[in-house]
Amino acid sequence: MGTRSLIGVETGEGIVASYCHYDGYPSHQLPILQGKYGNKVKALGLIKPGSMSGLEVEHTWDYDEKRAAQPLYHHERGEKDTGPQTYENLADILMKAQECWAEFVYVLSSSGWNYYEIQWTDS
User: For 35-51, how does the pLDDT look when each residue is reduced to its tens digit (9 = 90+)?
Assistant: First the structure.
């Protein structure tokens, strides 16, 4: 079972974000985001290819090739329409997180990486 998350960056147009399926809990994901994607350019580079399986995956989708730990993007296995989405504001992305069953949302703002644990509602 995956710990789903949305990873986003504040821009002038809102929050640009991509979905990540596995290992979205803060003790795993936050140090990676802070260490490897601590500025806007690097963070946008992370989310630009779109949704991903995980942030640090050491194999391809076929498990036939070992590679350095890196994001494993859904487009790598031929999925279409996996690009990042833009949300108007924090409330908008938090609502989207509930729709895609994400448990955490990470947003890079001018103050650094912030994360939000999703509080589930019955609606």
Answer: 999 999 999 999 999 99
Q: Give me the domain span that covers residue 55.
A: 5-14+22-115
Percent helix, percent strand, percent coil in the chain, to nearest 5? 25, 30, 40
Question: Is residue 122 a part of any domain in this protein?
Answer: no
CA distance linking residue 90 with residue 15, whole number of Å: 7
Stated pTM of the model: 0.94
CA dihedral 103, 20, 50, 47 (to 10 degrees): 80
| Distance in angstroms (rounded) separating the CA atoms of residues 123 and 120 | 9
What is the C-alpha to C-alpha distance for residues 90 and 116, in angstroms, rounded to an integer?
A: 10
